[in-house]
Amino acid sequence: MQNSERVNFASKIGAILAAAGSAVGLGNVWRFPYETGNHGGAAFILIYLGCVFLFGLPIMIAEFVIGRRAKASTGEAFKVLAPRSGWKYVGYTGVLTGFLILGYYSVVSGWTLEYIFQSATGNLLGKSANDFVSMFQDFSKSPWRPLIWLLIFVGMTHIIIVKGVQKGIEQASKIMMPMLFIIIVLLAVCAVMLPGAMKGLEFLLKPDFSKVTSDAVLGAMGQAFFSLSLGMGCLSTYASYFSRETRLGHTAVSVCVIGTCISVLSGFIIFPAAFSVGIQPDAGPSLIFITIPNVFQQAFGSVPVFACISAVLFYILLAMAALTSTISLHEVPTAFLHEKFGFTRSRAAWIVTIGSFLIGVVSSLALGDWSDVKIGGMNLFDALDFLTAKIMLPITGMFTALFVSWKLDKKMVRDEVTNRGTLKASYYPALIFILRYITPIGILFIFINELGWLG
Ligand code: PHE
Fold first, then answer.
1. Neighbours of 152 (CB within 10 A)
2. Rounded to the nearest whole angstrom, what is the distance from the C-alpha of residue 120 to the centroid of ligand 1?
3. Contact at 8 Å (CB) between 60 and 252?
4. Which of 96, 2, 21 minimizes the C-alpha distance to 323?
5. pLDDT over 90 for what percent of the chain?
6. Does residue 327's CB lie within 6 angstroms of at least one atom of ligand 1?
7. CA 404-407-408 angle, 5° bins
8. Distance between CA atoms of 241 and 45, rounded to whole angstroms?
9. Is the Cβ atom of 222 under 6 angstroms away from ligand 1?
10. Which of 3, 135, 306, 443 makes a 20 to 30 Å CA pair with 60?
11. Domain map (residue ranges) of the chain
12. Does residue 393 line the site of ligand 1, with CB under 6 A?
């Protein structure tokens, strides 16, 4: 079902900007470094790059083809392109995954607001590395404070989705994204110059293949899907707003390159900084919240005003990057409820907002009062992240690849990739080959390998 409300969303913005706004977020600055830290550094990054190339890039083009062709959000797109078949469940799984991710992602987004507040009030000044560790632990384990920030963040996302001020946000992100990029480069330069930073650089650049377990490979694959917003129909929903002239391959390459650069640059901040003050690189989700304040402290501590202003700026930009991602996560289930069940957009948005807030509450408490509740040895926050990023996204991504390469009419796919024959797109045969064989077999292989390892 088409309707003017949905089509308005992001219709006037550049395709690259919209997709990059969704892709660049906490996945690059928060999740990439801690996954890299957990899995031993440079070797993980190499595997990650392989996953971006073999899974990320082709699946991104596949999602673009589906979205632009079907002109519907992901929940309905599979149904439009393959009526009366089971393929629609691929779209539905994507919707569910997006909804679950939105819940715990908003918790971490809320943490960025706390750090804007802390840096603006000067609380990050004059502290030692250990102070930052206990500061983060006290905060994340306390029952109320993270929940208040969660509520504020979920509220911000809700207002933007309902009021349809995406255009404003995307205009703002045109300025914010380059600013975030510049500040990340500056911080990386500062971090690399810290005393003892060499060890961090070594961790980042010198691969130790003995650390490559099946777990690390699964982690790298999950990170590629998560960070590029793939496997839940987010980018296919965005592609339904692309114009006929948007070059799908070109857009996908741009988004992959931008996202990967920001991730790797974040590594150049975190690891030199962590090794410099003796923080273990496998500190998990807390990693950036205990290392980045240290970079500000050590690099600019002698000029407190400058330290404060730059820290506030950094966390504002990070919160903005998170916001453009939560908007895209929210849009998928909202558009689905609106199109499938005929709810008004506002009611659909309320359902998603309340539901994701409740998931957020559970994930947040899982790090404090409820940390004893475990599934498969993980607290509920980690379990949710594991289930969505490492299982659900790759599975949906695999079926997306199969759908485009086996099920869809090849003339139609070629038409989309070449903009109805107006582009050369000489990569087309390779794309179909990779989507048909390499991507699905690769994903299956990684799953089977992991099961074997677990057993
Ligand atoms: N890619 C986003 C990030 O890296 C997170 C995200 C995942 C957004 C899935 C949309 C869909 O922060």
1. 14
2. 27
3. yes
4. 21
5. 71
6. no
7. 60
8. 33
9. no
10. 3
11. 4-454
12. no
At 59-118, the pLDDT tens digits run 999 999 999 999 988 989 999 999 999 999 999 999 999 999 999 999 999 999 999 999
Looking at 1.20.1250.20, 1.10.1060.10, 1.10.3720.10, 1.10.4160.10, the CATH number of the domain 4-454 comes to: 1.10.4160.10
Instruction: State whether the beta carbon of 240 lies less than 6 angstroms from ligand 1.
Output: no
How much is the ipTM here?
Answer: 0.98
The alpha carbon of residue 181 and the mean position of all alpha carbons in its chain are separated, in whole angstroms, by 16
Q: Does any ligand 1 atom lie closer than 6 A to the CB of residue 328?
A: yes
Show the tokens assigned to 137. 């632990």
- Mutation choice for ligand 1 from 52, 228, 234, CB with most ligand atoms inside 8 A: 234
For residues 327 and 316, the answer to whether their CB atoms sit within 8 Å is no
Q: Is 388 in the pocket of ligand 1 (CB under 6 A)?
A: no
Between CA 366 and CA 382 the distance in angstroms is 9
**Residue-by-residue DSSP string for 273-288:** HHHHHT--TT-GGGHH
